[in-house]
Automatic annotation (TrEMBL):
<dbReference type="GO" id="GO:0000139">
    <property type="term" value="C:Golgi membrane"/>
</dbReference>
<protein>
    <recommendedName>
        <fullName>mannosyl-oligosaccharide 1,3-1,6-alpha-mannosidase</fullName>
        <ecNumber>3.2.1.114</ecNumber>
    </recommendedName>
</protein>
<keyword id="KW-0326">Glycosidase</keyword>
<dbReference type="InterPro" id="IPR027291">
    <property type="entry name" value="Glyco_hydro_38_N_sf"/>
</dbReference>
<keyword id="KW-0862">Zinc</keyword>
<dbReference type="GO" id="GO:0004572">
    <property type="term" value="F:mannosyl-oligosaccharide 1,3-1,6-alpha-mannosidase activity"/>
</dbReference>
<dbReference type="GO" id="GO:0046872">
    <property type="term" value="F:metal ion binding"/>
</dbReference>
<dbReference type="InterPro" id="IPR028995">
    <property type="entry name" value="Glyco_hydro_57/38_cen_sf"/>
</dbReference>
<dbReference type="InterPro" id="IPR015341">
    <property type="entry name" value="Glyco_hydro_38_cen"/>
</dbReference>
<dbReference type="GO" id="GO:0006491">
    <property type="term" value="P:N-glycan processing"/>
</dbReference>
<dbReference type="Pfam" id="PF01074">
    <property type="entry name" value="Glyco_hydro_38N"/>
</dbReference>
<dbReference type="Pfam" id="PF09261">
    <property type="entry name" value="Alpha-mann_mid"/>
</dbReference>
<comment type="similarity">
    <text>Belongs to the glycosyl hydrolase 38 family.</text>
</comment>
<dbReference type="InterPro" id="IPR000602">
    <property type="entry name" value="Glyco_hydro_38_N"/>
</dbReference>
<comment type="function">
    <text>Catalyzes the first committed step in the biosynthesis of complex N-glycans. It controls conversion of high mannose to complex N-glycans; the final hydrolytic step in the N-glycan maturation pathway.</text>
</comment>
<dbReference type="InterPro" id="IPR037094">
    <property type="entry name" value="Glyco_hydro_38_cen_sf"/>
</dbReference>
<keyword id="KW-0378">Hydrolase</keyword>
Length: 438
């Protein structure tokens, strides 16, 4: 759809989903994707394996999933993201801002902030700021941050402060309400373009009052959208009519165009506007009233326990695997080198399952039971591969150089045989007594 509509632009954030598409795409499709990236119609934002949770994930896991995504991009597309998009985690941590800053991200967008903080920053026209680490005395850790001003990143909360107006511009969902009253979503035609165009322009003006520059960011999407050609057609056909109308009105003094996050950040930089500097975190999140999103800190504690254990196993494997591989190279043992080379894919698989579980609806436990079970199965699969790899590594380490023809066999039995069972026992079986092992 981007190839057919040259003025249209799109952003993609989570690499786990892009990798799934990439693995089954034809070479022509892969070439199309690269061309769209080159002409800046498509932009990869953040580039993490997932859009990580920032409240219950360990900081090393947040970093590892970012590395996994960035390495995938380098290996397959040869690109490095420069803009961050994190609109769904339930609260935001300066730790993530720090990691993004040092991974090459120049500007970032966040969303789920306590509504009273948003209100205060909006009154100060400080919804855009430089986010600084609390311990920093200079601007060395600053990263430019744009805060989405309203309740959600969805279409009905994006064009301006009035959702019953903005929801009219979702030309696919067809569900728009003003209170309990249903508002019909109409396709744009000659009879209603003046009314719809003026209302949209008025929402833009209201939104612009909250920011310091003369450019605003208006996301147009939601969860699981743009999945069909029909939706693409309906959205683009109507939006382009509205954009043409607004741009043709000299009294509006407004230009509307499609853009990526980098396009937006570039326009902000051109304005040479001065922005405030903030430090601190954005927890605990509340979207309305007393609805504080703190339950997920302890929801489904078994999964939170298990991911720490598997993350610990992964780190041990990475250290031991590297040592054994280097030792085999030093000894010029080609058989062992080839054997360990064959297992690099298993190590990557385990790392990707751990990275996947950092998703803001996985480690948080906020997915449905069905989805959580699927997360658990994937994590369990990675764990089982990890145990097999650890057995191989320990067998290599236990091998007696004085008896090179004797194979050491080590098997490890953990009782986490199913995703919903706890890990609480460990048994190591040796093929023969080994009194000098540590």
């Amino acid at each position: 759809m981007l190839s057919k509509n040259k003025s249209t632009k799109f952003i993609w954030s989570e690499m786990v989903f892009l990798s799934e598409w990439w693995n089954q795409a034809s070479q022509n499709k892969k070439d199309d994707l690269k061309r769209l990236l080159d002409n800046k119609q498509l932009e990869i934002t953040t580039g993490g394996w997932v859009m990580t949770d920032e409240g219950t994930a360990h900081y090393t896991a947040m970093l590892d999933q970012l590395i996994e995504g960035h390495q995938w991009l380098q290996q397959n597309l040869g690109i490095q993201p420069t803009a961050g998009w994190s609109v769904d985690p339930f609260g935001h941590s300066p730790t993530m801002a720090y990691l993004l800053k040092h991974s090459g991200i120049n500007g970032m967008v966040i969303q789920r902030i306590h509504y009273s903080i948003k209100k205060h920053l909006a009154e100060q026209r400080s919804l855009e700021f430089f986010w600084r680490q609390g311990w920093a005395s200079t601007d060395s850790t600053d990263i430019f941050c744009h805060m989405i001003p309203f309740l959600s990143y969805a279409i009905q909360h994006s064009c301006g402060p009035d959702p019953y107006v903005c929801c009219q511009y979702d030309f696919f969902k067809k569900q728009c309400y003003h209170g309990s009253q249903k508002v019909d979503v109409q396709s744009v035609d000659d009879n209603n373009i003046d009314s719809l165009g003026r209302q949209l322009w008025e929402q833009f003006q209201k939104k612009a009052e909250l920011y310091r520059t003369d450019v605003i960011l208006v996301p147009h999407g939601d969860d699981v959208r743009y999945a069909t050609s029909l939706e693409w057609h309906n959205q683009l056909n109507n939006l382009e009519k509205l954009m043409t109308y607004i741009n043709s009105r000299p009294d509006f003094q407004t230009e509307v165009r499609f853009g990526t996050l980098s396009d937006y950040f570039n326009e902000v930089a051109i304005s040479k506007t001065r922005f405030p500097t903030l430090s601190g975190d954005f927890f605990t999140y509340a979207d309305r009233g007393e609805d504080y999103w703190s339950g997920y800190y302890t929801t489904r504690p078994h999964y939170k326990h298990i991911i720490r254990r598997v993350q610990d196993l992964l780190r041990s494997l990475e250290i031991l695997f590297t040592y054994c591989f280097a030792d085999a190279i030093r000894k010029t043992n080609q058989t062992v080198i080839d054997s360990f080379t064959d297992k690099i894919g298993d190590l990557s698989y385990i790392r990707q399952q751990v990275a996947l579980f950092q998703h803001h609806d996985a480690i948080t436990g906020t997915s449905t039971s069905k989805v959580m079970k699927d997360y658990g199965k994937r994590l369990h699969s990675g764990y089982q591969k990890g145990i097999l790899l650890l057995e191989k590594i320990l067998s290599y380490l236990a091998k007696d150089e004085n008896e090179p023809d004797v194979d050491e066999k080590i098997s490890m039995t953990f009782n986490w045989t199913q995703p919903h069972k706890f890990i609480d026992q460990k048994v190591i079986n040796l093929s023969r007594p080994k009194h000098d092992m540590v």
